[in-house]
Design a protein that fits this description.
CATH superfamily of the largest domain: Ribonuclease Z/Hydroxyacylglutathione hydrolase-like
CATH class of the largest domain: Alpha Beta
CATH architecture of the largest domain: 4-Layer Sandwich
Helix content: 25-40%
Strand content: 25-35%
Strand order of the largest sheet: 1-2-5-6-7-8-9
Shape: elongated
Number of helices: 12
Bound molecules: MU-OXO-diiron
Radius of gyration: 24 Å
Number of strands: 22
């Protein structure tokens, strides 16, 4: 790791985790990730904003030492999750005079996670300003993007927002700045889907607060730095807005091809109407791509055979993920084929209690779909077309 100067006296220390395949053993990382710390030199004081994953703690310390700093006065902990705070003990070992700044919630979490004594912390308040001499830091509490302690730190007079998780992207890359916007958008969208979408209302609230700020640069805790803040702010406004786009997502699974034939029929009908449709086989579900597809989708159709008297377990797993991510879909439906048990909708729909969607009539078929069943799917397709062409969708 090397320290790279963002502007005079402000350095990015980005630990690139090129090889990491999953975050929290859960979130796929097709392009790795980075953990970003930032160092700010004021005329009187020096502050380190966030640290890195504990596995890269010594890399961070070595990069700091290469800067030849006389000391570090403050370590600002925007967020207690260890991918940002896990190297605080290593930095304190190298710079023992540093004070750790955190809000009360963050302090509680860090005390539990790192075993740091509570008296070591200096508590920060929302909108509190800390002088570094010719520069100052202002702390902006931003709870639930994505933990209750989440905070952003705003540097004045340089107008840099250190946003930690908020507005970030799981993307390991050599470039310091987010100049490759299509690539960054793809990574940021998947990151938003997996990390921020469950907290969409909080995202909207914090975006409204940021709209009142003069922001020249957004320096997140993951991924490259935004020298054009409108790029990521506009994307977040679109993704978090209440109105979905006319896009249909179909998680499906089939055991004897009956459900598969139903999905194919529905797909054909929807595609013939020019709608965007994304089917996902949930047997080996790419949860990152799936989550990303849910960000702006209007309609979800769950297609599953019955196993015993309920959905296939792989579909139940996909439904659990959807329910956790809380996408803004306006309509949902269930289709599938059964052998002897018939309670597909009765046992699948309750797994999706977080969806604020209108449920369309299910199409549940005994065995192989027949003419009347395809006609029922035509009816479902017509209804999906109708609601997606209705005003506001
Ligand atoms: Fe990147 Fe919530 O940690």
């Amino acid at each position: 790791m090397i320290a790279r100067e963002l502007i005079t006296g402000v350095y990015a220390l980005t630990a690139q985790d090129w090889d990491r395949k999953r975050f929290d053993e859960l979130v796929p990382l097709p392009e790795g990730t980075s953990y970003n710390a930032y160092l700010v030199k004021g005329s009187d004081k020096i502050a380190l904003i966030d640290t890195v994953h504990p596995s890269m703690a010594q890399d961070l310390v070595a990069a700091l030492q290469q800067l030849g700093l006389p000391r570090i006065d403050y370590i600002v902990a925007n967020h207690a999750e260890l991918d940002h705070a896990g190297a605080i003990p290593a930095v304190l070992a190298a710079y023992p005079q540093a004070q750790v700044l955190a809000n009360a919630k963050c302090r509680s979490l860090l005390a539990a996670e790192l075993g740091l004594p509570r008296e070591m912390f200096v508590l920060i308040q929302d909108n509190h300003t800390l002088s570094l001499g010719d520069r100052s830091l202002r702390f902006m509490w931003m709870p639930w993007v994505h933990w209750p302690d989440s905070t952003a730190t705003y540097l004045e007079p340089d107008h840099i927002l250190f946003s930690c998780d908020f507005l970030g992207a799981h993307l390991a890359c050599s470039e310091l700045l987010a100049d490759d916007e299509p690539r960054v958008e793809q990574a940021a969208r998947m990151y938003y889907a997996e990390i921020m979408m469950p907290f969409r209302k909080h995202v909207v609230r914090h975006l409204e607060r940021l709209a009142a700020e003069d922001i020249a640069m957004i320096a997140p805790g993951h991924g490259p730095v935004h020298a054009r803040p409108a790029f990521i702010l506009d994307l977040y406004r679109r993704w978090a807005a209440d109105t979905p786009q006319p896009e249909i997502v179909i998680p499906y699974i089939s055991m004897y091809d009956s459900t598969r034939r139903m999905v194919d029929h529905l797909l054909d009908r929807l595609m013939a109407e020019g709608l965007k449709v994304q089917p996902f086989n949930v047997v080996e579900l790419d949860s990152g791509r799936f989550a990303s597809a849910l960000v702006e989708a209007s309609t979800l159709v769950f297609a599953s055979p019955l196993v015993l008297d309920g959905p296939h377990p792989a579909m139940a797993n996909a439904a659990f993920l959807v329910n956790a991510l809380k996408p803004k879909v306006s309509h949902a439906a269930i289709i599938g084929s059964y052998g002897w048990g018939t309670a597909l909708a009765e046992n699948l729909q309750p797994l999706l209690s977080n969806l604020h969607a209108e449920w369309l009539a299910p199409v549940i078929v005994g065995g192989v779909p027949k003419e009347a069943d395809f006609a029922a799917l035509d009816g479902l397709a017509a209804r999906i077309v109708q609601v997606n062409r209705a005003e506001g969708v």
